[in-house]
Design a protein that fits this description.
The protein is of the alpha+beta class. 50% of the residues lie in helices and 24% in strands.
Length: 152
Amino acid sequence: MVTGIIWAAATAVVWAALFAADFKNKPTERDVVYLPASLFAVGSVLLFAGSAAAVYGAVSGKWLIVPFGAIFDLVGIAAILCRINQRTALAEGESFTYTTFLGRKRTYMPSDVVDVRRNQDSYTIVMKRGKIHVENMARVNEKFIKTLISER
């Protein structure tokens, strides 16, 4: 019973922190590629469903359910982190900054584009040093993409 209460409380705290981070990091006019708010909602549903399953497993003694709940929690947290962090924003001059879902930032110029690859569920923009991953669900400024493609 105590394990279930601790898990539920931890989930509430984690979700509140992620909600505050998302609220603070809303897309601005400088963000030319970002993920939609619906990804935060999907991540929240996964997080709470996983926590509910884990709490149920812990309280009822069905311990095999707990790892599946934990997996749902991790996937939900990853989805929310993608929404919060993964974006491309205009920087100084023509440069732009790409941030991964874990918050790692890299600054590029349009002339750094080597190739643009169309994948089944995304685009990969190959740069001279690194890659930019753009999901199909991302909100993309068309002028920005045309600039990247024309620089190749």
